[in-house]
């Protein structure tokens, strides 16, 4: 199974959401801005080299030329929008997924600078249709230090599951990505994470 890399919790108001999550027991550390995208993030380590990314508009950047990622511009409340799996060889992983019948999207290079000045560079691929966030995007960090190493500790991922009107249709996609996710039937797609924190259990969806 390809390794869970991180969960993406998107919000229209980053400062307020970081304050709210901190109050619920999730310690977060500043990640940094995404130049040109109009966003920045805060991170929490989840154990097993995975992390929670809380991402929202960056007030210190001008309005981006294109919509912010993860549908942030349309959000009216924070939401667990998707998840990512980490692969050692991104190009090979994308090739294998296509051969198995899943279009994972094209690889895109990205970077951001940490508050301590270290430049992180990575490549990722977003699927054209992620089925309401249940189909993960694929990421490769190369030689860059993994963000989970410097993220705030004290939070642990207990479980990750999905809800979807037709869970059966997602099975072949997960197989093509060499990953898995428990998905139960529900009226609307949703990603649900249960986290253990110093203040107790927190559920994000």
TrEMBL record:
InterPro entries: Glyas_Bleomycin-R_OHBP_Dase, Glyoxalase-like_dom. Pfam families: Glyoxalase_3. It comes from the Bacteria. SUPFAM superfamilies: Glyoxalase/Bleomycin resistance protein/Dihydroxybiphenyl dioxygenase. Residues 4-170 form the Glyoxalase-like domain. Gene3D superfamilies: 2,3-Dihydroxybiphenyl 1,2-Dioxygenase, domain 1 (3.10.180.10). PANTHER family: BLL2707 PROTEIN, GLYOXALASE-LIKE DOMAIN-CONTAINING PROTEIN. This is Glyoxalase-like domain-containing protein. It comes from Amycolatopsis albispora.
């Amino acid at each position: 199974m390809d390794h869970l890399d991180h969960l993406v919790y998107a919000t229209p108001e980053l400062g307020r959401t970081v304050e709210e999550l901190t109050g619920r027991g999730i310690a977060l550390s500043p990640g940094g801005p995404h130049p040109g995208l109009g966003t920045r993030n805060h991170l929490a380590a989840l154990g097993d080299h995975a992390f929670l990314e809380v991402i929202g508009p960056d007030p210190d950047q001008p309005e981006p030329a294109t919509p912010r990622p993860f549908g942030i511009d349309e959000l009216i409340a924070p939401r667990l929008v998707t998840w990512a799996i980490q692969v050692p060889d991104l190009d090979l992983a994308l090739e294998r997924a296509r051969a198995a019948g899943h279009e994972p999207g094209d690889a895109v290079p990205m970077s951001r600078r940490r508050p301590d000045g270290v430049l992180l560079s990575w490549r990722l691929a977003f699927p054209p249709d992620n089925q309401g966030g249940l189909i993960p995007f694929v990421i490769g960090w190369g030689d860059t230090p993994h963000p989970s190493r410097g993220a705030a500790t004290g939070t642990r991922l207990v479980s990750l599951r999905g809800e979807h009107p037709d869970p059966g249709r997602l099975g072949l996609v997960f197989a093509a990505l060499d990953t898995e996710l428990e998905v139960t039937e529900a009226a609307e797609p949703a990603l649900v994470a249960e986290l253990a924190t110093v203040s107790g259990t927190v559920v994000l969806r």
